[in-house]
Amino acid sequence: MSQKDEFHNIDDPSDGLFRELAAGVTTRIFSGEQAMLSVVTLAPHAQGKLHHHPEEQWGVLLDGSAIRVQGDEEIPVKKGDFWRTPGNVPHTMRAGPDGARVLDIFSPPRPEYKKAGSGFGTR
Asked: Which residues are the signal sequence here (predicted)?
């Protein structure tokens, strides 16, 4: 594999492994050996489903505004905010009126996200 294959662009919609997570919620996934990046795009007012997984997850709001639902709390987030979600904590995201774009980082990589498809994945 060429080292060039290890370089990507966060704004290139054709780069990465595509998944449709929910209505109005899509992601492009980039998987490594010990970590995985997911660039999630949410349409205005779109929301994912409440879910959990054993992997630790960090998120960064790149654009827009949203409500981060984590555990039993709803926390407003704005561009530049970032957060950690420990493994097995229920969570989701609800986009604001202009939509949102989030960079999620998983460690270790989520096995169900290593293939194209739809949904948040199941074990």
From this structure: none
